Amino acid sequence: VQLQASGGGSVQPGGSLKLSCVASGFTSDYYNIGWFRQAPGKARERVSCISSDDGTTYYEESVKGRFTISRDIAKNTVYLQMNNLVPEDTAVYFCYVSWRYTNYWGQGTQVTVSS
C-alpha cells in the first residue's frame, strides 16, 4: 500500500489549503481513508476520514465547519479542503488508510498557519 500526500504549505490565519493523497496497492473492498495530524509536542490526532462504501465522514471537533474531506474514486485520491485556517492547525498532516484491520501511512506534509 502506498500513499502519496501533497498540498501542504504556509498560510496566514484565515487562509486555505487543499491536501491531496493518492492511494494505491490495495483492493477496493471496505476501507477508511483520511488524515491525521501531529503538532510539535503533541500526540497524533485524527482530523478527518471517509468510508469507502457510503462516504460516511468523520471530523475532529475543532475542524468541523472549516475542513471538508472528499474523494475521487476513479483517481484513488482523497482530498482535504482546509478553510479559515488558524495557528492551532499548524502540524504535519499524514494521509492514512485503514484496510483489513491495518493502518497504512503516507509521508507527512507540513501545514503552517502563521501571521
In brief, what are we looking at here?
It contains no helices and ten strands. It is an all-beta fold.
Q: How does this structure look, described?
A:
Strands 2-10-9-4-5-6 form a 6-stranded mixed β-sheet, with no helix packed on it. The protein has a 4-stranded antiparallel β-sheet with strand order 1-3-8-7, with no helix packed on it. It is built from no helices and 10 strands. The protein is mostly beta strands. The mean pLDDT is 94. The N and C termini lie far apart (37 Å). Helices cover 0% and strands 58% of the residues. It has strands at 2-6, 9-11, 17-24, 31-38, 45-51, 57-59, 67-72, 77-82, 91-99, 102-113. β5 (45-51) and β6 (57-59) form a beta hairpin.
Q: Compute the average pLDDT.
A: 94
How are the strands ordered across the major sheet? 2-10-9-4-5-6
Report helical residue fraction: under 10%
Count of distinct strands: 10
Structural class: mainly beta
Distance between the termini: 37 Å
Stretches with pLDDT under 50, minimum 5 residues: none
Quaternary organization: single chain
Largest sheet: 6 strands, mixed
Task: Using the CA coordinates, give the radius of gyration.
Answer: 13 Å
Shape: globular
Order of helices and strands: EEEEEEEEEE
Figure out the total of helices.
Answer: 0
Q: How much of the residues is beta strand, in percent?
A: over 45%
